[in-house]
Automatic annotation (TrEMBL):
Main location group: other
Oxidoreductase recorded as keyword: no
Organism this protein belongs to: Trogon melanurus (Black-tailed trogon)
Annotated protein name in UniProt: MORN repeat-containing protein 5
Coiled-coil regions listed: none
Gene3D superfamilies reported for this sequence: Histone H3 K4-specific methyltransferase SET7/9 N-terminal domain (2.20.110.10)
GO cellular component: motile cilium
Keyword vocabulary terms for this entry: Cell projection, Cilium, Flagellum, Repeat
Superkingdom as given in the UniProt entry: Eukaryota
Length: 157
């Protein structure tokens, strides 16, 4: 069994780096997710006793007093860090400029969704999963879709 310090890659592509005891995560260690997020924790027999999740953009999740994108403050994390854009210029995603979505597809948060094939690929176009009916409906109803034409802010002359 795994013992000491090391790393282990799960079938999902998530990697664990840290202390191992009797084949389980035990002690200080972190999970590195394919989307760039990390979860650092103190583990006890494979279960996190305390930990903190950090998104790929540096935003740290707090389970208490979580105010990010709540009903009162709808700013993206990059807007909180760098300020709002001038009036008339919208920021559509936390990334600025936002990702270019392939024609006919949707940006579903962890990759692009093609409603014709019902396949979700990551942002490097590697297969992630097939969408079931519920996920398909949610993506079509909620997620940002590729525009049919390119638009950009044009300053007044």
């Amino acid at each position: 069994r795994m013992e000491g310090r090391g790393s282990y890659t799960l079938p999902t592509g998530t990697e664990y780096r840290g202390a191992l005891r009797d084949g389980q995560f035990d002690g200080e260690g972190e999970l590195l997710f394919p989307n760039g997020g990390t979860y650092r924790a103190v583990w006890h027999r494979g279960v996190p006793a305390q930990g903190k999740y950090t998104f790929a953009d540096g935003l740290e999740y707090e389970d208490k007093k979580w105010h990010y994108c709540d009903g009162y403050d709808r700013r993206f994390y990059t807007e909180i860090c760098s300020g709002l854009k001038p009036a008339g210029i919208s920021q559509l995603t936390n990334l600025d400029p936002p990702r270019q979505i392939p024609e006919g597809c949707y940006d579903c948060g962890d990759g692009f969704y093609n409603p014709e094939t019902r396949v979700i690929v990551d942002y490097k176009f590697r297969f992630l999963r097939n969408a079931d009916d519920d996920e398909h409906e949610w993506i079509i109803r909620t997620c940002r879709k590729a525009w049919d034409e390119t638009t950009e802010h044009k300053p007044k002359p």
